[in-house]
Every structure is written in C-alpha cells, then in structure tokens.
Amino acid sequence: RATQYSCMLLSYLLEHKADKEKLVMKLKQLESSMSSGRKMFRLGNMVHAMVAARRTAQLPDVVPRFCLTASNVTRALYFVCDGVLWLRSVGLQPDADKQKWHNWATKFYYFSLLMNLARDWYEIYWRLEEAILKKRMKENSSWDKEDQELNCWKADSLPSFLLLLFQILKRHPPLLLDMVKNLCDLSGPLDTLGIYKTNSGVIGFCGLVSSLVGILTLASPHLKLKQ
C-alpha cells in the first residue's frame, strides 16, 4: 500500500517534466500492479471484518459499539465489492459493471471511515469532559459564583479548548494516530464521490501517510487504538 501511494505521488510530481515520461509510465504501471495485487490479498478480509463486527457488537459502551460495528459491517461490504472488481480484472467475471461496483465500494469505504472518525471524536469528547471536570474540581471553593462562571467561560474559550485538545492527543498517541489515518484515508473517497475534488498528488500523499501510520501501529502494537 505504501509502495502504491508512493508511486502515485511520484508520478504526479514528475508528470510535467519533459524528460521523465518513461519513468512516469513505469511508476503508473507499478501503481496499477500494486493496486491489483492488493485486491487479491484482500479477498479474505471480508471474513476478518465480519469477525471484528461480531466482537465489537459485544462492547459495553453503546457509542463505540454502534460506530465500530457499523464500520466493520460496511467494511465487509466494501471487501465484497472489491472482490468483484478483482474477479473482473482477471477475467473471471467479465460482465460485472466496473463503474457500479467501484462506486458501491467507495461508498461503503467512505461510510466505514466516517464511523471510525465518529468513534475517534467520541473518545476525544469523553476525555475532554473528564479533563474539564478534573480542572473544575480543583477550583478554589471560596470563589463566589460570578468568579466561577468567569473561569468556566475562559476554560470554554476556543484557545483553551484547542490547548486542551492538543494536550489530550499528545497524551494519547494511539488516538492521534488513528484519527490521522482515518482523515488521510478520506481523501480518496471524497475525490471519487465528487464531494471534495483534489488530485492524485494529494491522494498519493495522504495514502502514503496513512500507510506509514499503519506500518507504525503494526510494528508497535501499543500505538494501535484498542477496540
């Protein structure tokens, strides 16, 4: 995946250089080969996604339970569409409508990412609530009501909120990495669905960052956000 998006980014950066036509063509061919290979390697991921959905359906907290289960189910549907596209690419299902299946795959993937981001925001939200509560508990009880209201207003101002958000993400690297990965992954479906058009350079860069985060969480499992 990292190789595929690196090729996409490099081909975008080099495509306007007059003496780089052959290199750009080779990069695009490698990108296409990597994309096709990844589709084949993902054929079993539908089962993995359904097993994950069954596991997350048992979570005690209702918000993560809903978000993660919905994400895993739609991700499984995405893998079904992806499998059909692979079958068509190798000639086993030549009559499949490529554009239709591609659009469905993109929509399922997009919804899965939105559910993941909703879960990330929920994790941030309750940590913000917890931090604000602890801060208010440390307030001097001798202050009068007006002083307390003024302090609360200051704590709820935008700079204070952003500072608190930064501190929370700094203290919880798995949450930060998961949010960065999901936000980067959004660039592809947003462009494909016409919600926010970009270019192959942006998609390649975001895909590369997302892939590197994925490699990092595989190499260091403690950095992966627990379900």
From TrEMBL:
Transmembrane segments: 201-219
GO cellular component term, pick one: peroxisomal membrane
Domain of life: Eukaryota
Cell compartments where the protein resides: Peroxisome membrane
Official protein name in the record: Peroxisomal membrane protein 11A
GO biological process entries: peroxisome fission
Origin species: Tinamus guttatus
InterPro entries reported in the protein's UniProt record: PEX11
Phylogenetic classification of the source organism: Eukaryota, Metazoa, Chordata, Craniata, Vertebrata
